[in-house]
Write a structure and sequence with these properties.
By secondary structure, the chain is of the alpha+beta class. It folds into three domains: 4-63 and 205-225, Pseudouridine synthase, CATH 3.30.2350.10; 65-204, 2-Layer Sandwich (Pseudouridine synthase), CATH 3.30.2350; 235-291, Archaeosine Trna-guanine Transglycosylase, Chain: A, domain 4, CATH 2.30.130.10. The protein has nine helices and 18 strands. The strands form four sheets. Strands 1, 2, 3, 4, 7, 10, 11, 12 and 13 form a nine-stranded mixed β-sheet that branches. A five-stranded mixed β-sheet has the order 14-16-17-18-15. A two-stranded antiparallel ribbon has the order 5-6. It starts with a strand and ends in an 18-residue tail after the last strand. Responsible for synthesis of pseudouridine from uracil-55 in the psi GC loop of transfer RNAs. Its EC number is 5.4.99.25. Residues 24-179 form the Pseudouridine synthase II N-terminal domain. It catalyses: uridine(55) in tRNA = pseudouridine(55) in tRNA.
């Protein structure tokens, strides 16, 4: 199996681990990793790395993301989403009294650079143990606030029904932003409570859900994004001569002309289009950070069982 990145459209009910396990079987390799989980309730984009391209996932994890979500105003839950138990419920009159202007103002207050407290049932570790595990053990977990940026918080539509107000929203945000925390905080600010009832991730950096496939439909070989294509979507490109590609592949530094304002890792591409590796600039030289040699197969038995959610 050639290495590369794979874009998966995760179905509801699957864990990210389930998706990785199924992909290992489909790709015939154990070397599969992901660039950020999705809760089982959520659907949408997972970026998986196959074989040596798992090393590119480091440059995917911290990218901005886009989500489509449904926020229900009028009820708060223990998990800030639909899977938790009810904490509070507003009266139908309170929900009906919410004005469009008040909702818009609440959304505006949660747009831009904000301080957000992650949900207590998140996967954040507290003294080496996941926060959600501590909550399940009966602990009262209060995670510290942290800065995040919500660059877009767009209300697309709203629907009244059954004593609730459902908001269909689109959110673009920095990595580490919790959409269910936005739902919680919006409902709290409006005095009626709120939680998330649906979540779909539609973009991670340059990768979009339109180019993803479900695990039932995917053709791994046909839809694998090559290491060179993936790396040049994520990082600036440096085209090498044949001799430079050989030298970098052997761990040598090469002398180059470059823009002195350019910093950070660069994708070094051989004349045949292959990703030689990721390099960094040191003065007028480029030094290899990661080399991408051809993958050695690491197969798994196609009959190996895969968890079914």
């Amino acid at each position: 199996m050639t290495s590369g990145l794979l874009l998966i459209d995760k179905a509801q009910g699957w864990t990210s681990h389930d998706a990785v396990a199924r992909t290992r079987r489909l790709a015939g390799t154990r070397k599969v990793g992901h660039a950020g989980t999705l809760d089982p309730m959520a659907t949408g984009l997972l970026v998986l790395g196959i074989d040596s391209s798992t090393r590119l996932l480091t440059y995917v994890v911290g990218l901005d993301k886009e989500y489509l979500a449904t926020i229900r105003l009028g009820q708060s839950t223990t998990t800030d989403d639909a899977e938790g138990d009810e904490l509070t419920r507003a009266t139908a009159e309170q929900v009906t009294a919410l004005s469009a202007a008040a909702v818009a103002a609440g959304i505006m207050d949660l747009t831009g650079e904000i301080s957000q407290q992650p949900s207590a049932v998140s996967a954040i570790k507290v003294d080496g143990k996941r926060a959600y595990a501590r909550v399940r053990a009966g602990e009262d977990v209060q995670l510290p606030y942290r800065p995040v940026t919500v660059s877009e918080f767009e209300l697309r539509s709203s629907t009244h029904g059954d004593g609730f107000l459902d908001l269909e929203v689109r959110v673009e945000c920095t990595s580490g932003t919790y959409i269910r925390a936005l739902a919680r905080d919006l409902g709290r600010a409006l005095g009626v409570g709120g939680h998330l009832t649906a979540l779909r991730r539609t973009r991670i950096g340059p990768f979009r859900i339109e180019n993803a496939a479900t695990l039932e439909q995917i053709d791994v070989v046909a839809q694998l994004i090559s290491p060179a294509d993936a790396a040049t979507r994520l990082l600036p490109r440096l085209d090498l001569s044949r001799e430079e590609a050989i030298d970098l592949g052997h761990g040598k530094r090469i002398t180059i002309d470059r823009d002195p304002t350019r910093t950070g890792p660069v994708a070094a591409i051989a004349p045949d289009g292959r990703l030689v590796g990721l390099v960094e600039y040191r003065g007028d030289q480029a030094k290899s950070l990661l080399n991408f040699a051809p993958d050695e197969p690491d197969t798994v038995d196609a009959s190996e069982s895969t968890p079914t959610p």
